[in-house]
Amino acid sequence: MAFKPTLHYHPVLPSTMDEARRLAEENASEGAVVQAGVQTAGRGRFGNQWASPEGNLYMTLLLRPPVATRFCAQLSFAIAVALAETLEGQGVPREAVKLKWPNDVLVDGRKIAGILLEMESGQNDAPAFLLAGIGVNVAVAPEGATHVQAYAKQAVLESFRDALVQNIGGLYDHWIKRGYAEIRARWLSQAYGMGQPVTARMAERKAEGIFEGIDAEGNLILSDGAGVTRTIHSGAVHFRMP
Description:
23% of the residues lie in helices and 33% in strands. With 242 residues, it is of the alpha+beta class. It folds into 2 domains: 6-188, 2-Layer Sandwich (BirA Bifunctional Protein, domain 2); 197-239, SH3 type barrels. The strands form 2 sheets. The protein has a 7-stranded mixed beta sheet with strand order 1-2-3-7-6-5-4, with helices on both faces. Strand 8 (197-201) and strand 9 form a beta hairpin. Helix 2 packs across helix 3 (157-178) and helix 2 (74-89) packs across helix 4 (181-188). The protein starts with 5 loop residues before the first strand and ends with a strand.
């Protein structure tokens, strides 16, 4: 493993991301894991609230990757693959686990986990640090979502966390030493909605097309069906599944 995990557990926190940022700014070592039993101000992408009832996994991992900042978004896909591996290790069927661009993990089409990356720029186009926030529905889930114990009744929060951190560490080490290509291929092998119509909504516009995959930087590739493709850097995606 490329880092040595150090757990910082809090029964209640406003946000594990904010606490991890505080540790990072105080020069905490790579591998610090901030976990909360409950979050009172958890957040997802675009500042959306992340409901955080007791019984689920809420954690943020502090990383200091020795790469250019433009590559850091690739880590979201490495973490998604690690989540898939961890779910499968808990007994969730592999064929049920799908990875939805850019940062969600689904089981049987319902959300079970989400990822949020925040990066602080450093010098010479290298990040000062990167925060990987991860929320996993282990014991309970909001309406329309699902949770680990629906598939693996004996799943334990602490063992799930430890397995996930280990899997992330292995893929992080692989990413640093060998790059993104294999991780991208593994993500695509479980991609949700491949070949299906999708609408990507950005701040002031939307784009529609067929989901063809992700490029070397993790951007969404859309095709118009006539051989013309475009890439989407960020946005909320809505698949029109048959």
